[in-house]
Amino acid sequence: MTEILPDETKRFLRAAIADPDETLQEMEERGEDFPTVGRDVGQFLRVLAYAVDAERIFEFGSGFGYSAYWFAEALPEDGEIVLTEFDDDELREARDYLERGGFADRAVFENGDANEIVERHDGPFDVVLIDHNKDGYPEAWDAIREKVAPGGVVIADNAMVSGIQDFDAILAAMEGEDPEMDAETRGIAEYLLAVRDDPDFETSVVPLGEGIAVSYRR
Ligand SMILES: C[S@@+](CC[C@H](N)C(=O)[O-])C[C@H]1O[C@@H](n2cnc3c(N)ncnc32)[C@H](O)[C@@H]1O
Predict the structure, then answer these.
(1) What is the pLDDT of residue 15?
(2) pLDDT greater than 90 at residue 152
(3) Which residues pair with 212 in a beta bridge?
(4) Mutate to test the pocket of ligand 1, among 85, 111, 158 (most ligand atoms within 8 A of CB)
(5) Which atom, in ligand 1's list, is nearest to the CA of 136?
(6) What is the CA angle 161-166-168, rounded to 5?
(7) Which residue CA neighbors atom 11 of ligand 1 most closely?
(8) Topology classification of domain 7-217
(9) pLDDT at 168 over 90
(10) Which pLDDT score is estimated for 1?
(11) For residue 93, how far is its CA from the centre of ligand 1 (angstroms)?
(12) Using one digit for the tens of pLDDT, what is the confidence trace for 20-68?
């Protein structure tokens, strides 16, 4: 897999983040074999949520709640975060972890396909995280873009790499070529082109973790 940052830079970024609370540290041990966003992105998600004064957050693909936990601390007590997850066991774990942090009262746990669940939730959302099946990103974008509050942000994880997408093909597609792509690679490429060319959003790809695309709604 393409390395997007040198090890020394990764060490630097890690050293610049204060230790997260005990529950998050335990979640990191639990997540050693699970594709969470990781600590660098988690910290950045929390900063973004604070920066936009987030009151409502929607996640496509929550796993056992790691990214949601980073977000939850930035929400006011009457705020809301919607977690979506196919896997019922993971969602149950997410509830347990958020309860331990005292955040479960601001969380809505939705078991099923995020791209269907989003249809049942009205906006506006101040922050959205897209981190589910990669071929589902373009559909998620179509479903969520109108529900993002002006001044809100959409973050898509795996904008650059993951174990299942072709970095070179995504880059070629964004540079105007028409490479052969599998469904996951095409999903990411189409997503990045859609957000780049959307006149209502400003997008920047940030090489943190596996690369995140941050799209700000004007
Ligand atoms: C990369 S993990 C999410 C990690 C999470 N955001 C975190 O940082 O802790 C992706 C998760 O999305 C779930 N998933 C994949 N496609 C989905 C879909 N269409 N709807 C709901 N969940 C989905 C998978 O079961 C998996 O747990």
Answers:
(1) 98
(2) yes
(3) 157, 206
(4) 85
(5) 19
(6) 95
(7) 61
(8) Rossmann fold (3.40.50)
(9) yes
(10) 81
(11) 13
(12) 999 999 999 999 999 999 999 999 999 999 999 999 999 999 999 999 9
Q: How far apart are the first and last CA of the chain?
A: 34
pLDDT, average across residues 168-180: 98
**Which sequence spans correspond to the domains of the chain?**
7-217
64 Cα: distance to centroid of ligand 1 (angstroms): 9
Characterize the bridge pairing of strands 80-85 and 107-111: parallel
**132 CA distance to ligand 1 middle (Å):** 4
Pocket lining: 116 vs ligand 1, CB cutoff 6 Å: no
